Amino acid sequence: MEYSDRTRPRPAGHHPPTAGTVAHDRGWAGEVRTSVRCAAALLALLLCVDGAAGSLTWWRGLLWCALALLLLLVLYPARVSAGDGWLASRRLLRTRRVRTDLLVAVRPLDGVTRRLVLRDLLGDRVEIDPEVLARNPVLWHRLDDGVRQALAGGTLRCGTADLDRLARRLDSETARAVFRASGLE
Q1: Which of 14, 96, 107, 119 gets the highest tally of CB atoms within 10 A of its CB?
Q2: pTM of the full structure
Q3: Residues 45, 128 within the same domain
Q4: How far apart are CA 135 and CA 170, in angstroms?
């Protein structure tokens, strides 16, 4: 069998190579277990109440299963990962990825849950929970490295004040955790 020495050219810049180590959200598996437990508890509660009332039928049981599955889909967390120059958020059906070294805007969204919206020069967009960054210093470090590269390259023009606020908050939480662990609190 003959192999060609030529490689196919990759599209420029859209998905960077995964050189080096990739950092993942360490709390993601626990959040998945929690969402499954909530959906299972709802299903068990609905089936027990309907069974105790004597009105449980096969189609009502199917309806309760669909409702529990809907709750699971709503509660299912995104898996955040980051590498050299990129950050990705993977949901059940879709993975969104931005180049952190080509960021153009970082904006916080306040609502029911806080979100951080990252946009890159290529038009890609990712929404992540800032608490994921607080729980995972390696993810924050990867994002911070990319932000510094984007600032040095002149692409990041919107959101630097928000990132500074987030960095101060994460630094103070980290310092408090160190003091607590060392008994100096």
Answers
A1: 119
A2: 0.75
A3: no
A4: 9
Mean local confidence (pLDDT), 58-79: 95
Contacts of 140 (CB under 8 A, 6+ apart): 133, 134, 170
Helix (H) or strand (E) holding 82: strand 79-83
pLDDT tens for 92-130 read 889 999 999 999 999 888 877 888 999 999 999 999 998
Query: In this predicted structure, what is the pLDDT of residue 20?
Result: 66
Query: Rounded CA gap, 89 and 118, in Å?
Result: 11
**Domain housing 175:** 78-182
**DSSP calls for 143-171:** HHHHHHHHHHHT---B-HHHHHHHHHHHH
DSSP 109-139: E-SSS-EEEEEETTS-EEEE-HHHHHH-HHH
Considering the chain, what is the average pLDDT of its residues? 85
Residue type, 170: L
Amino acid identity, residue 152? Answer: A
Strand partners, 106: 118
Same domain assignment for residues 172 and 82: yes
6 compared with 152, residue with greater pLDDT:
152
Both 58 and 132 in one domain: the answer is: no
In 3D space, the residue among 74, 71, 69, 128 whose CA is nearest the CA of residue 96 turns out to be: 128
Does 51 lie in the same domain as 34?
A: yes
User: Mean per-residue pLDDT for 72-76?
Assistant: 93
